[in-house]
TrEMBL record:
Protein name: NUDIX hydrolase
GO molecular function ontology, one term from the record: hydrolase activity
Ranges of residues in domain Nudix hydrolase: 46-177
Cofactor section: Mg(2+)
């Protein structure tokens, strides 16, 4: 597929300055050697990653709404959260934890849609995206995070697409999940025809 040497595009780190070391991410400024021999600077965010689940019951997807301070807006998303330390080796377990904490549901059937980098130009954050259409209500679910305030809603595919057009759904993971769901519905329709 790739018939050229990608190594020639590599940027070698010459020095690193730590800017911020927080609970969720680190920020650094790297001085790098560029492929043409010049030097440049890269401001990078290192993040442990996250998980997300597109939960569907019948013909509806379960979304959670919350206020997102970074964009100063209330939006609807699929249940998701950051990987805790040590969870990188079992992202499915982390996805199940987040699903239960945020919705009170669990599943025995998680299908991996795709892991994806959120914004590889500046951050190492990767999100592991899953789908499930076999949800079960949990009798005594894990509690939500103390600083998390959520509203749950069930939406049809048409309602989800409308919320996306209205920018009430505006994050990449949820848009990807809705598109995956639509493809699954189209495939199911073709097999029933």
């Amino acid at each position: 597929m790739l018939d050229f040497d990608t190594k020639k595009f590599e940027e070698k780190t010459l020095s690193r300055e730590k800017i911020f070391d927080g609970k969720i991410f680190q920020v650094v400024r790297d001085k790098v050697s560029l492929p043409d021999g010049n030097t440049g600077f890269r401001e990078l965010v290192f993040h442990n990653g996250g998980v997300a689940v597109a939960p569907v019951i019948g013909d509806k997807m379960l979304l959670v709404g919350q206020y997102r301070k970074a964009i100063e807006q209330f939006i609807y998303e699929i249940p998701a959260g950051k990987l805790e330390l040590g969870e990188n080796s079992d992202t499915k377990a982390a996805a199940l934890r987040e699903l239960e904490e945020e919705t009170g549901y669990s599943t025995k059937n998680l299908i991996e849609i795709a892991p994806f980098y959120v914004s590889p130009g500046c951050t190492s954050e990767i999100t592991y995206l899953y789908f499930s259409s076999e949800l079960e209500k949990v009798d005594n679910p894990r509690p939500q995070d103390d600083d998390e305030f959520l509203e749950s809603i069930f939406v049809t595919l048409d309602e989800a697409k409308k919320l996306t057009r209205e920018h009430k759904i505006s994050d990449a993971k949820t848009i990807m999940a809705i598109q995956y769901w639509e493809i699954q519905q189209l495939k199911a329709g073709e097999s029933n025809a």
